[in-house]
Design goal:
Structural class: mainly alpha
Number of helices: 10
Distance between the termini: 53 Å
Number of domains: 1
Shape: globular
Number of strands: 3
Order of helices and strands: EHHEHHHEHHHHH
Largest sheet: 3 strands, mixed
Strand content: under 5%
Oligomer: single chain
Length: 305
């Protein structure tokens, strides 16, 4: 799509203007990004190479780890590079691509979390029907629909942003291109666009969060009828999922479920769901799961041999 705007590039303000603080942030976020790549890659490789981790839960977890790596890679490398340079610019097309890809992986992760909750619901609440409703083909369909849903929703956001006229100023008060900061720069009335953003990203995040909350409440109520050992195991798994849901959906709802006003906290909140949460996911899922830890040990032993 040809760019007919006067703006050919955008200037990113970044996280901070303090150069000393930028160096500190570079070191911290470099460690975080390396932890994201190594942790999620370790989970993906472990699940794919371990014959004992074949249940649907681990199938979804491997894709969630892959999406986390991709999602953080949309913003983290650019953030790290900008912390070392003075002129933080991004081209118009690079900015639109960042909007599309970030929303693509973000929405895909939302639908994957829904699929994981669906899997846990049938595993705990309807165990006799579990193999019927959660077969391998069903799992593949749910993953495919997650990717398709992420593509459709991100395409809506991107087309909405691309058709906005930008004639200046071109300074984005953020460390990456997102819809709300771009709406502030558009040289037109953005009321309809803001409503669409709330209806798209905001309502999707809120409705999915409510669905997940209700499903886990039902699961926790059902756990009361299980044996103590089975209850503790299921509760440990559900607790991991609930922690991820709260950490991911809380910031998303704060950012997108409101008018396109910007607050000083927006950058910190965005860091949380683009970098912190993908980094903590491997720790949450592995430290509370003995099967994954045992599989990692076996994979490590095989690699050493």
């Amino acid at each position: 799509m040809e760019n007919t705007n006067n703006v050919s590039e955008f200037i990113l303000v970044g996280l901070t203007q303090d150069q000393d603080l930028q160096r500190v942030c570079f070191g911290i976020f470099l460690i975080f990004y390396m932890a994201i790549l190594l942790g999620n890659l370790l989970i993906t490789v472990t699940i794919k190479s371990s014959p004992q981790l074949t249940s649907p839960m681990y199938f979804f977890l491997s894709y969630l780890s892959f999406v986390d790596m991709c999602y953080s890679s949309v913003t983290a490398p650019k953030l790290l590079a900008d912390l070392l340079i003075k002129n933080k610019t991004i081209s118009y097309y690079g900015c639109m691509a960042q909007v599309f890809i970030s929303h693509f992986f973000g929405c895909t992760e939302i639908f994957l979390l829904i699929a994981m909750a669906y899997d846990r619901y049938f595993a705990i609440c309807k165990p006799l029907h579990y193999t019927t409703f959660i077969s391998k083909s069903v799992c593949r369909w749910m993953v495919g629909l997650s990717w398709l849903g992420g593509f459709v929703l991100s395409m809506v956001q991107t087309l909405l942003t691309v058709h906005l006229p930008f004639s200046g100023p071109n300074e984005i008060d953020h460390y990456f291109c997102d819809v709300h900061p771009l709406l502030k720069l558009a040289c037109t009335d953005t009321y309809v666009a803001r409503v669409i953003v709330i209806a798209n990203s905001g309502m999707i995040s809120l409705s999915c969060f409510l669905v997940l909350t209700v499903s886990y409440i039902v699961i926790l109520v059902t756990l009361r009828t299980h044996s103590s050992e089975g209850c503790l195991k299921a509760l440990s798994t559900c607790a991991s999922h609930i922690m991820v849901v709260i950490m991911f959906f809380g910031p998303c709802i704060f950012i997108y479920m409101r008018p396109s006003f910007t607050f000083s906290e927006d950058k910190s909140v965005s860091v949380f769901y683009t970098i912190i949460t993908p980094m903590l996911n491997p720790l949450i899922y592995t430290l509370r799961n003995e099967e994954v830890k045992n599989a990692m040990r076996k994979v490590w032993r095989r690699k050493r041999l």
